[in-house]
From TrEMBL:
Residues 23-57 form a coiled coil. This is Porin. It comes from Pseudohalioglobus lutimaris. Keywords: Coiled coil, Signal. InterPro entries: DcaP (IPR045748).
Amino acid sequence: MLKRNFVLSAAVAAAVLSMPTSAATEAERIQQLERQLKQQQEVLQLMQQELQQLKSGKPEQTLTQQSIQPELESESPVVVAREQEVARGFDIYGFVMADAIYDFKRVDPDWADTLRVSTIPTQDGQFGEDGDFVFSVRQSRLGFAADYDTPAGKVTALLEAELFGTGGDAGQTTPRLRHAWATWNNVGIGQYWSNFMDADVFPNTIDYWGPTGMVFYRNQQVRYTVPMGDDVFAIALENPDTALTVGKFRDECTSGDVENCDSVLDDVFRKYNDIPDLSVRYRNNNDWGHWQLAGMARKLGYERLDTGARDHEFGWGVNASTVINTFGKDKLKLQLVYGEGIGNYMNDGGVDLAPKTANLQGNSAEAVPLLGVVAYYDHYWSDKWSSSVGWSTTKLDTTKGQAGNEFEQGQIAQVNLLHYPTSGVMIGGELIWGEREDVSGDDGYDLRAQLSLKVNFPRE
């Protein structure tokens, strides 16, 4: 910092000494020298302030547009470069997290690192005998954040990834994008928490997947946030992605000729999304915490690839949530969500469209109703110890056309004890119980214990 200021001083002095004698009269040269001297004094004052801040341990102050006269900016490119540099903020953050898990039952092996209730088997021995031990580092995370002011307004950027592969990379330690988000003033675009979601409801737990009944979705979107002081009102157009099932008809032949079956219905029915989802959110921040109300409207389209036939259903949802400050750092976290065709936005187990009836002929799709509940309490015993306890559930009002082995209801309960021995380090254990129930009424449960160590990357 001081070195850069000395460079700045040298540049100003050079500008003074190099001024041609024929450029102005003697009086004008004296006035210009006086201006240059005044500007040099301002720079020296800033240097003295920064030196005092360094001695006191306080963060340094940055030069602003008003701290240097425009005349000097035009004469010294060093000043312009210095100002652009200090106007920007850049941060690298993240952590390494290692988990040791003992599963008293058994889940889908691709999801053994976390208790996602939709992966709990409802048939004995479906994934092998009970008992499974897992080491995992898949929760580890790395992120880059930047923000800076421009003449046209404030700009921010966020790029964040983790090692928890999903989809085709399920079960793998594969980099997975979490956020790729950019904002300019009140406009944001990219991938970020859905506008239908309240991220602060997520409890202080260490299992990766978390509450099954929570609205939890990182979605591509464009969002506009209305300035309202401490409160927030935001409207967004979000990427539509219908979760579609053909239910008990997945193996039915499209031609009706079983002996010459070229394709089944599961091969030809696909989602068809031509309109983005619309979400609105209002959040009120106050002394005791916050409350939030969000709404969702969706066009749930589907088509047959063999015939080209298309149709759609209307999906909607309302999400009410709150975080209440109780005693000290303690927080009560609650959420209630209900809607039809919003399963894609849920943390687990959701489906948007399913066959309406049990008859193949004359059947149509139906937006599946869904209820989600979250209730957790984060308690801080001291600055070095905390616990979280809570329960969450997802309940689908399944249709008559869904298959018997499809997910209908899930719930999870957690309790933990976490220790923070020093800044940036957490170690703790958690007991987790989960249950799944299918459309047929078959159910299964799981119980597991997890020990985790999390170490944050140091930040200046």
